[in-house]
Amino acid sequence: MSVQIFARAAREAKLISQKGRGRGAAHMSLRDSANLLIAVNGSPLAKEVSRLVPLFRDLEPTVRGGSFLGRNDEIGDALASATTFGDALEALLRLSRPGINGESIMDMCLRKDATHRVWAENRGIDPSAYVELEFGQPYIEASIKILNLKLDESRKQEMWTEAGVVIYTSYYEAPKRLRPADRQIRTSITQETLTRVAGLELIDGNR
Fold first, then answer.
1. Taking a C-beta distance cutoff of 8 angstroms, is the pair 142, 61 a contact?
2. Which of 112, 123, 165, 176 is the 20 to 30 A CA-CA neighbour of 67?
């Protein structure tokens, strides 16, 4: 899949305002970046970008559970105040921007959630929690999860478990021609993708 094809479709639909290519494409707003991520991960075909991106953006939170309910940091504040998935995605992108030392606010928040730190670091494993975003279709839905490292004491083996989740849903469905029987297709990304995209942003008046 070529990101450029989806980016072109998003620009033609006026979902991305910037015109640059290559290094010039770095001048993107938070809205541009969020819409591009949705286009690439939420639309199976470039020609559906103009219809599906707004549907994903407008999804409302219908389930909040786990650590998100009492989370007292920038991630918790961002997700609590976001009324749609589009707003939440933009907020997470803002928190993912690397600072002077290369570390983002997101990194600092997730590092505080680290569990089994000594055990993990002795084995070369980053014990920090991580964020996962999931895009689902043909039933249009999305989720934002925080996963924590958990140690299986009996097997001395690490696993990642869901510590918090916000689910965004609606009644919208993809066109029938895009539905593979009754399957639900899910695409996921983590904060590593958010960090890469956020690092490209050179935003005027949107910092």
1. no
2. 123
| pLDDT category of residue 117 using cuts at 50, 70 and 90 | low
Distance CA 178, CA 70 (A): 39
**Partners of 61 in the beta sheet?**
168
What are the structural domain ranges in the chain? 3-199
Q: Which strands form 157-173's sheet, in the order they lie side by side?
A: 60-66, 157-173, 139-152, 130-137, 185-190
Q: Model-level pTM?
A: 0.81
Sign of the four-CA dihedral 27, 8, 37, 189: negative
What is the Rg, in whole angstroms, of the alpha carbon atoms belonging to the chain?
18
Give the start-end residues of each E strand in 73-138: 130-137
